[in-house]
From TrEMBL:
One of its GO terms (molecular function) is agmatine deiminase activity. It comes from Marinobacter litoralis. Keywords: Hydrolase. This is Agmatine deiminase. Its EC number is 3.5.3.12. It comes from the Bacteria. GO terms for biological process: putrescine biosynthetic process. InterPro entries: Peptidyl-Arg-deiminase_porph. Gene3D superfamilies: L-arginine/glycine Amidinotransferase, Chain A.
Length: 350
């Protein structure tokens, strides 16, 4: 193993985005006609800037998607192309079962951490094996994949690309993930595996309806090495107010390596959205995806969408902000960042 590892920031150059396509064998079965257009919107937005890897266990649909999207990209003279890989999957949350890629002195290495559906909440065996299907299909070329017997989801960590990680104690310290490990041993493993030089732990913050035990990518995100945006709830009557106010106070206390406080930007708080059983759903503007030249921003058909678009435009003035209505996704308790995983430059070649 190379002595020096770095987990790139999401804004670093990318070669592709990974999508695990919904199919009738998943919990999306009854709403395929609503959720597939969201995935197609993400796919087409991505192909404007980079390649796309799509896996699905329904081979006929997978071939159809590949042909359709590649023809569309060619007709529009876009840089991206689609690679399709037949592979079984329990669900579609590529952020959490997809590979995490680190840069080493010997080039990129993909890490296949264990996935157990956020502490055994759902079936996970197919998803946990998916990265090996991708590697076996040579999607990542000759770049090595290292399997690590440690449960870690991509949505649970944020990297500034310079050795600092942002995460939540609620998620990483949950016993149903790695019951034999405490905070110190987890920090040591993250230092060894993904080059963490320091870890900023948030002890507060949550979203109702979230299955992940407070993934950081639903709450707070690095926008630059010196800048963090975060979810803020201005409504004192809202059930989230106290926890998110405490999270905000924690963020205000965090400093960069040189001791300088971070620049902080609060994101809008969308109107509450409920499912048919009255359960509140985890709508969050923090669940955006940064790709080459653009930011894909989840919106929810609520009044705060336009303000979120404006704020993200201010944060990323050199990138196109592409809003995608992700309201259908949150009915399964995730959003745009949750269904995608970026692959750094130089890894996927078409």
């Amino acid at each position: 193993m190379s002595s020096k590892r770095v987990l790139p920031a999401e804004w670093a150059p990318q070669s592709a985005v990974l999508l695990t396509w919904p199919h009738p064998g998943t919990d999306w079965a009854k709403v395929m006609s609503e959720v597939e257009p969201v995935f197609l919107a993400i796919a087409k937005a991505t192909l404007r800037f980079e390649h796309l890897v799509i896996s699905c266990e329904y081979v006929a649909r997978l071939q159809e998607l590949g042909n359709e999207l590649n023809a569309w990209a060619e007709d529009n003279q876009l840089p991206g192309r689609v690679i399709t890989v037949p592979a079984p999957a329990n669900d579609t949350w590529a952020r959490d079962h997809g590979p995490i890629t680190v840069e080493t002195e010997d080039g990129p290495t993909l890490i296949d951490f264990k996935f157990n559906a956020w502490g055994g909440k759902f079936n996970w065996e197919k998803d946990n094996a998916l990265n090996m299907h991708l590697a076996g299909a040579r999607v990542f070329g000759k770049h090595p994949m290292q399997t690590v017997d440690f449960v870690l989801e991509g949505g649970s960590i944020e990297s500034d690309g310079e050795g600092t990680l942002l995460t939540t104690s609620e998620c990483l310290l949950t016993p149903s993930r790695n019951p034999t490990m405490d905070r110190t041993s987890i920090e040591q493993l993250l230092t060894e595996m993904i080059g963490a030089e320091r870890i900023l732990w948030l002890n507060h913050g949550y979203l109702a309806g979230d299955d992940t035990d407070s993934h950081i990518d639903t709450l707070a995100r690095f926008c630059a090495p010196d800048h963090i945006c975060y979810v803020a709830c201005p409504d004192v009557a809202d059930e989230h107010y106290s926890a998110l106010a405490a999270m905000e106070e924690e963020l205000q206390g965090f400093c960069q390596k040189d001791g300088t406080p971070y620049k902080l930007t609060a994101l809008p708080w969308p109107d509450a959205i409920f499912d048919e059983d009255g359960e509140r759903l985890p709508a969050t503007y923090a669940n955006f995806l940064i790709i080459n030249g653009a930011v894909l921003l989840p919106i929810y058909d609520v009044p705060q969408d336009q303000e979120a678009i404006r704020i993200l435009g201010d944060i990323f003035p050199d990138r196109e902000i592409i809003p995608i209505n992700c309201r259908p996704l949150i009915y399964q308790h995730g959003s745009l960042h949750c269904v995608t995983m970026q692959i750094p430059a130089g890894v996927v070649e078409v």
